[in-house]
Design brief:
By secondary structure, the chain is an alpha/beta fold. It is 48% helix and 7% strand. It has two domains: 3-132; 158-497, Alkaline Phosphatase, subunit A (3-Layer(aba) Sandwich), CATH 3.40.720. It has helices at 3-21, 24-27, 32-60, 65-79, 86-103, 109-133, 169-175, 180-192, 208-217, 239-242, 248-255, 284-300, 305-316, 320-324, 328-336, 376-401, 431-434, 456-468, and strands at 158-163, 196-197, 201-202, 259-263, 347-353, 406-410, 435-436, 438-441, 480-481, 496-497. It has a six-stranded mixed beta sheet with strand order 2-8-6-1-5-4, with helices on both faces. Strands 3-7 form a two-stranded antiparallel ribbon. The relative contact order is 0.14. The structure holds zinc ion (ZN).
């Protein structure tokens, strides 16, 4: 092949992933500026490589860099279509390329054959990926609320506050008898502020991504009879990008002129869905910037570049400014204290506070520890006590600034107190893991529905009914155990019913 042909082929390989990305499913959700970004990334990469090529030729009067460009384009292209073996294939390809560099000075027939074999493998993966992207029917939907419009129009602000991994007060009291007075006082303060604390509450699922998805689907999206799901595309928060049109709660709020805002944390950043982020009202440049970050992540998700990007982000996460970003209640508080805030203004705030979940970085007075607490028992307790302080401050603020607000303080799952290590998957299937902190502040006529039936799903349904001013249609309460990827279980993608 001539140099020119190499370069033409290279350009094609660099552009193909962007072209594949623009399938009908993605196109529905993209703006023109985003399509531009998806193409500009490989184009910049190509132009830089071509410039280096010209520069090296100018310097050394030798043409060789085009071969490197060619290999790079192939690697770049291939990396997008290895869903499961990404890491290994990447190293395998590097190894083969190096072998050729070392043992053959020139292109050989074998080399071209190798490339063709890679291609065939890549195309197979592409076909699998196309099937995978069309899996919206794996979960079940419930349209009870989708098209329902409210004529009476209430305007109360709603605060759905998720306290990640927060155990029930009862189990914390049992495990820390010396603190029982403190816990008792906390409960008293809740009740004084018109909250109902729900004892013996259970989450809908044992994992964050499923429980939070169930709130948004107003339903149990997967049960013991559902098909196995291959990934988290249809669940929180990936569904904001991959299944946005089918999110029952979002559609419902839109139909009823409620403004939805998502306040996230480092682990599930609300910048993934800038249209719902509280930051959306900031100036255009930052809005544009946030959009691009999430899009770039999404675009590279299936490629090995994803791992590299995440490593960079993790490095950045080491400084405390980013740890602060986990404090979703603080972000909500700042907003309530700003001039953009109005009481009773048809706002639905979904606040995902990462604590008392790991990282164990907080003292009980909410100052930061010098380093992450390695002691799981102590670390969790301190994070928990800080969270109680945060809740107290928030309910005081709301009683002043938004007295008619409807508030939910609820965990997405509990916490196994005997847990020694965050990766111990055996602790994901215990009663402690699904027994949750649960408290609600409701309008007078809905107080009778505040029972332990209010898991994540039924609470979400109750809130919708309040907006509609109708009798709630609650489901039979259930709890399911699902899996995380890191458990490497053959059962990943299936859930099983918890039977008490
Ligand atoms: Zn969680």
């Amino acid at each position: 092949m001539t140099i020119k042909k190499h370069l033409i082929l290279s350009s094609i390989f660099f552009l193909l992933p962007s072209i594949f990305f623009l399938n009908p499913n993605n196109l529905k959700q993209l703006f023109y500026s985003e399509i531009f970004i998806i193409f500009i990334i490989p184009v910049i990469l190509m132009i830089s490589l071509f410039l280096i090529d010209k520069f090296l030729y100018f310097l050394l009067k030798k043409n060789f860099f085009y071969i490197i460009i060619f290999y790079s384009s192939l690697l770049y292209f291939s990396s997008f279509f290895y869903a499961f073996v990404t890491k290994y294939i990447f190293y395998f390809q590097i190894l083969i390329l190096l072998t050729f560099f070392i043992f053959t000075k020139k292109y050989s027939e074998i080399f071209f054959k190798t490339i063709i074999i890679f291609f065939v493998i890549n195309l197979f993966y592409l076909i699998f990926n196309i099937n995978k992207s069309d899996q919206t029917n794996v979960i079940s939907y419930d349209d009870t609320y989708s098209n329902y419009k409210n004529e009476d129009k209430i305007d109360n602000n709603i605060y759905f506050i998720i306290l990640d991994g927060m155990n029930s007060i009862e189990s914390m009291t049992d495990n820390n008898i010396n603190l029982s007075k403190k816990f008792k006082n906390f409960k008293k303060n809740l009740i004084k502020n018109d909250f109902i604390y729900l004892e013996n509450s259970f989450s809908s699922y044992n994992t964050t991504y499923l429980s939070l998805a169930s709130i948004f689907y107003n339903n149990y999206p997967v049960n013991e009879n559902s098909n196995q799901y291959p990934n988290r595309d249809l669940f929180f928060p990936n569904f904001f990008i991959k299944n946005h049109n089918n999110i029952s709660l979002i559609n419902f709020l839109e139909n009823n002129n409620y403004n939805f805002s998502w306040i996230g944390n480092n682990f599930r950043p609300d910048s993934l869905a800038p249209q719902h982020s509280l930051l959306k009202n900031k100036n255009l440049i930052s809005k544009y910037f946030y959009q691009n970050i999430s899009l770039i992540f999404l675009f590279f998700e299936n490629s090995y570049i994803d791992g590299i990007l995440r490593k960079i982000i993790n490095l950045k996460n080491k400084n405390t400014k980013n740890i602060d970003n986990n404090d979703a209640i603080l972000k909500l508080t700042n907003f309530i204290n700003s001039k953009n805030f109005h009481k009773s203004s048809k706002n639905y705030f979904f606040v995902h506070h990462i604590y008392p979940h790991t990282p164990f970085v907080l003292n009980k007075d909410c100052t930061y520890k010098k380093q992450v607490d390695e002691n799981f028992e102590n670390g969790y307790l301190d994070n928990y006590l800080c969270t109680l302080n945060k809740i107290n401050d928030l309910i005081n603020l709301l009683s002043k600034k938004d007295p008619n607000s409807i508030v939910v303080l609820q965990a997405d799952h509990g916490w196994e107190l005997n847990k020694k290590n965050s990766q111990d998957s055996q602790y994901l299937f215990t009663k402690d893991r699904i027994e949750i902190f649960n408290a609600v502040k409701l309008p007078e006529k809905y107080k009778k529905f505040a029972t332990k039936k209010l898991d994540n799903v039924n609470t979400s349904r109750l809130l919708n009914s309040i907006i509609l001013n109708v009798e709630p249609n609650l489901l039979e309460k259930k709890t399911f155990f699902g899996y995380y990827e890191f458990q490497n279980s053959a059962n990943y993608g299936k859930v099983k019913l918890y039977e008490n």
